[in-house]
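Check this.
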Amino acid sequence: MSNINVYVIVEGQTEQTFVRDILAPEMGNKGIFMHPALIGKPGHKGGDIRFERAQGDIVRFLKQRLDTYISTMFDYFRLETDWPGNKESQGNFSAARKAEIVETATFEAISGLFPEHNIEQRFIPCIEMYEFEALLFSDAYILAEKIDVSISRIEDILEKFDDPEEINDGPDTAPSKRLQRLKSGYRKVAMGKTISEAIGIQQIRARCSHFNGWLIKLEQLVGVGE
């Protein structure tokens, strides 16, 4: 089995920690080695999710080695309005459909600019719906335990959504905002790691269809690389 190296350009330290400490070990068992890199220059704290900045990082990694793959992990919420596909995705669509619109437009934008880098096979964009914290709602019992609240408070949220990645009905009720209200002093990076590690990648995949679809695409690279 050929080893596959995937560089994942991430939005911030929460995603960087998640990919490095939770997701990479799981995928490494399948020969897929994931390397998170914060968007922007080395030493930058992340954020500022403009397509111009992301484009520079994507191309930089594409050029470094011809045998690597490039992906992303950006929150849909954080994208600038002029990000490819963002305006077209604003509508009464499912979270998965919104992600598909933006990811397809992102792929096409990069492909059109840099066709010489074999982007069709090497670039697999991923936009988190609606943000990373949605994944933490994949197991109500574990989430309730880790943030020390009644499970009924988590279940009250989840009963409104078929998929944790659908949790978003406004800027004040997004997953991270809900967690901040549930847990005073919620620490994004540390608790994001603790909760996701306790839940486990397999449970997250079982509950979050778009996230699972991203990992399926990466798993399929193993056959391509042989």
